[in-house]
Every structure is written in C-alpha cells, then in structure tokens.
Amino acid sequence: MKRLTWFALAVTLIATGFAVKTPYQAVLQHSRIRGRPHGPNVCAMQNIQGSDKKYFTNCKQWYHRKICGKPTVVSYECCPGYEKVIGEKGCPAALPLVNIYKTLGVVGASTTKMYSERANLQEEIEGPGSFTFFAPSNEAWAALPMEILDALVSNVNIELLNALHYHMINKRLTSDDLKHGTSFPSMYQDLDVHIHHYSNGIVTVNCARLVKTDQHATNGIVHVVDRVITAITNNVNSLIDTDDDLDTLRTAVAAAGLTNLLENEGSYTIFAPTNEAFEKIPPETLTRILGDPLALKDLLNYHIVKNLHCSESIVAGTPLETLQGTVLEVGCDGEEMTINGKAIVAQRDKLGTNGVIHYVNELLIPDSAKTLLELAEGSVVTTASKLFKDAGLTDHLIGSEAVTLLAPLNDAFKDKSLAMTPDMKKLLRNHILKEKFSSKSLYHGQELETLGGVKLRVFVFRNNLCIENACIAAHDKNGRFANMFIIDKLLTPPMGTVMDVLKADDRFSTLVGNIQRAGLTELLNKKGSYTFFAPTNAAFSAIPPADLNRLMRDPKELANLLKYHIGEDFLVSGAVTSHTRVTPLTGDKLELGTRNSTIYVNRVPVVEADLMATNGVVHAVGVIVKPLPPKILSDQAEGSTIRRTSAVWAGSQVIKNDLFQKVLRSQSSRTMSRVQ
C-alpha cells in the first residue's frame, strides 16, 4: 500500500512537470530563460524601436530580433509579480500583496487609480471581494480621443463609473483562466468582455492586449491592458448596417445572401472594403462581379476569415483561411496591419458580438471571381497577356468559356521577337486548351486539344509536370470560368517526326546525310519517344577529314556513333536535374546536368534544347558526345577499388575499333574538353 502511494505521488509529480502550458505561459517561460543570466525573476522583453510597444519574447522573435518586420531592442525587466531590491541582483522580491486600488499604482496604471478615485470606485476595489480588473495603462488613457475622455470625466458618477465597471469581472481570473474564445460577464450590466488567447502568446480582452498580467492583490487580480475597452452589444452585420462608409458592402452582403451569416453566432474576422475600395475597381469589372451571384459570394467570402483575429494578435505574417477557401497573408509592418503584403487596413478592431471588423481601402478579389484576362494582368505573365490581346483572343480571355490558358512567364519572351505575325497568332491559339483542366488531374501521355486543333502531350517527370516542351512553373490560377497554367517557356508543338525536325533545320544537313548513310532513317521516323542529342554541322566539321572519311565509309561504325547520341526515353530540358541519366541505344548511360540554365550531356553543352517531334525531342549539340573517362569508385568498407569502364557498345561490350577511338580523340572531342 505504501509502495502504491509513492507510485501515485511520482505520477502526480511527473504529470505536473509536463502539464500543458498556455501559449502565454510558454512565452513567459522563454522570456524568463533568456533573462536568467541577469538574476532571479528577470524576463527578457523586446521593445520595437521607435515605439513604446514591448513583448515577452518567443524563440523566433529572439533570434530574428524583429517584431512586425521592425528591429527590436532587448531589455531586461522584473517578471510579473516581482520587484528589485537595492544591492541585489535580479528581482528577488515578490511585490507586496495589497488591495487592487494600491496595486494599480505600482503596475503602471496610476491613471486608472486616479479615475477610480474620482468615480467613487476606490472603496469598492479596496474592500473585500475577488475581482479581476483589466486596468488600462497610463498610455491607454492618453491615447483615448479627447472628446471621449471629456465625456467620461464630465460625468464621473455614471459614465466613468460604468466604463470602469465594464473593465471588471466579479471573480479572480489568472492568465491561465483566460481561454481563447471565452466570454465573461462584466460588472457593468453583465455585458460580456471577450477573451482571445492566441497561439503566439498574445492575450486580448475586447482586442486590447494584456501588457502586464497576473498582478495579484488581496482582493483579486489586475491585468494591465493597452487600451480603454468599450461595451460590445451589436453583431458585425449591425455594425456594417449603421456605417455610412460601408454602404456598398452592405448592398453586396444582402445581394449575396450573407446577412444571416453575419447576424448569427460565430467568431469571424471581416476585412470590410469601404465605399472608396469599391470605387477603385474598374466599373466593368465591378458590374460583372455584382451581377454574378457566385463571383460576388466568392468575393465577399474572401474578405471573411474563419476565426477572430484582433490586430494585436498579428506580430508576423500569418496565413489565415477565408470562407472562400483560400488564404490571406495577414501581417504587420511596424504599426501598419498588412494583407498580402500591402498596408491597406484603414481602421482596426471594430468588435462585434460575433466577430471583428478591420476596414480596408482596397478590394480583395480572389482568383475564383476573375476572368482569365484579370488573372493574367498584374502578374508574372503580363507579356503573354498583351500578346493574347494583340492576337485577337480577348473574347476567350474575358468570356465564360471553360478553357485553360497556358501563359508563359515574362522571362520566356527574352530575346524573342514579339511581332504579331501569322505564325505567332497561330502559336498563341495553341496556348489555349478547349477544356478547363486542373494540373492535378493531368497524367502522363494525356493529349490536350487546343483552339488551334493541335493535340499537346502531357509528360510527368519526377521533378516537373510538362506540356510538350513547357513545364508548369506555379500553382494553378483557378478563375471564375476558366483556369490558367503558368508555364516556363513558349510552347512549341511538334511539327513532325525527329527526322522531319532535322530535315527542316539547315544546321543538321550533315547529320541527315549521315543518318541516311547509317540506315537509321526508318528508326527516327517510326513511333517512339526518343531524345536525340543531335550534332550540328559544326560538330562533324571539327572531326579531322581523314578520320571523318573513314567513318563515312563504315556505316556500322557510323550507326554506333549516332546511336550513342539517341536516348531511349523522352526527356525535355525541364526534366533535367543534376545527375540525370539517359540510356542511349548503344553504350553506357549518358550523364546529364544543368549549370547556369544550360544543359550538359557528358559535359557537352546543349546549344538549343527542346526541338519537339511527334516521336521524341531533339537537343542540338555543337560537339560530338563521347563517353566520360572511367570513374574510380572507392569502397572503404572492403578496402577495395572498383574501376568502372565506360563503354559505347550495349551491355558490357567495349568499343575497341581504332577508327571510332580516333574520332573520339579528334578536334571535336578536344573542343568538348575545353568546355568542361
């Protein structure tokens, strides 16, 4: 029995040691740890430079030395409930336990103490009881608009007393008791005060941040807050209804059928666009959205976040999910609250019973409410957007067709002529697919038909998803009726077989003759998925004439040389990573890699990539590709050395033909060595 008792005690101690701390307590503990070298009960505080805002520090803020994007200065202060003793290190002494009235004077709330005396509240907070007082700091009273302060102090027995009673709860609540989303009846007509305890350790009451918590008193507890709070009686829909700056929003909410949502119970954050925000939108865009119930509902839901976030809870960029389904990046830049990186919040923290409103002076339009043209404009595909319009394709970009736009990045047009020729118009029509697709639904070998009637192939690689030579460079943009894929290159649909591609390019005239001489014409015309590292005329010209002549007289040896340049599998440039390997029709694997946007095959640079064919892809090389030197692999565990001999023949056969070796040692190969 005694052993069982000791076991139960041990379990209790362990459970206590590992008890889950509230976010605030976790941050406070981190501040204590950082302040420990300065003595007992010292907390590290981070003060934003140029302001009076101080925060207990968490790990991320400590190392970044930034809050809201601004540098901070670290100071060391007594942790809540402790004070310094002259001649001793740190803060060894607990604050004297006195009543709430006297406590206000020693925790930075002397103005609240003064107004408590004027409102005849002193006797109540000196006497018996168990209260929680959310006491505005001296700075909070100083920041109160003068007309409001005058109204309070001109009627101290009613207005000021009621205001102070609204800051009080008739029971003792420590920071641990202030759970996220809870409400407590105040001592003013039992009107609730609303608590939010965020994961970053910030605690707010009616969106006022607790700056000094858990200041214990004989008759309760004091939490110092950074603003004077006011009673909350209306839901967010009523707040919108009664604000002239939100007239357009009110009309839009009613048209979208969202009135009941904003009247019912909940805990929302609404980034409410002002009338000015709506006026900034082009009239045709606004008319289109207001006349489209689905687009309008998406637009408004994009302004509503599922959980309540007071501005004081934001100390760094935070992705918040909206009712529309996507996220807003809500952050701060010094004193400014930002949305998607822009300081567009004009007024903050208008609190209702079921949420909080932040006024924004710019309309947030989600992709799901945009046309293709609106998706493209103001993004990284503006060049393509202009070209599509110049090509007379605007109707496809602003209409209700269920299509998919393949929009090349602006960088894809560098060093390219943007003249609107018939060929360019035809090419651009082949950048619009006849159906609405999601990239997640595409599969290898799938064919996608364009407005131009061309069927484009889908290729799925380990590191990329590509349509012909162009790979998808960003997440899908899903518009109201159509989708947009951002691609890294201008599409080049296949114009024939590999042999057709080579014949159509004068740079490969020597290669075409050699292919015919080697009997490989049929191979490169038949169905397949080849990757041909095609030597240009310059590559063959670099071979010494005598060696070249001998090679031309031996079709079998010529065929082996060419087959070493033909990979068995299809590989566009976007699929090449470091140490990519391709198995040629003859010989050891080809080693591929990239450097400074250039592809290398066995260290030979590709001079032009992605010449698309119906049965493969051609990459032009200016040098004959040869096997890499033998590699020495050291097996330390066995203490043995293994030599891997690069071969050109398939399987384990090694080319020993003198003529082929001379070709590999020719001027062309020496040129290749210089570029390695």
Automatic annotation (TrEMBL):
Which PROSITE patterns has this protein been placed in? Answer: EMI, FAS1
Annotated InterPro entries = Adhesion/Biosynth-related, EMI_domain, FAS1_dom_sf, FAS1_domain
Signal peptide (UniProt feature, chain positions): 1-19
**What GO cellular-component annotations does this UniProt entry give?**
extracellular matrix; extracellular space
* Keyword Amino-acid biosynthesis tagged: no
Span of domain FAS1: 94-229, 233-364, 368-491, 495-625
- Gene3D superfamilies for the chain: FAS1 domain
Enumerate the subcellular locations listed in this protein's record, separating them with semicolons: Secreted, Extracellular space, Extracellular matrix
Tell me the GO BP annotations in alphabetical order: cell adhesion; extracellular matrix organization
What terms describe the molecular function in GO for this protein? cell adhesion molecule binding
Superkingdom in the source lineage: Eukaryota
Query: Which residue ranges does the record assign to the EMI domain?
Result: 39-93
Q: Which UniProt keywords apply?
A: Cell adhesion, Disulfide bond, Extracellular matrix, Gamma-carboxyglutamic acid, Phosphoprotein, Repeat, Secreted, Signal
Q: Does the keyword Signal apply?
A: yes
Q: How does it assemble?
A: Binds to type I, II, and IV collagens.
State what this protein does.
Plays a role in cell adhesion. May play a role in cell-collagen interactions.
Q: What is this protein called?
A: Transforming growth factor-beta-induced protein ig-h3
User: Can you name the source organism?
Assistant: Carassius auratus (Goldfish)
What is the name of the gene encoding this protein?
Answer: LOC113058062
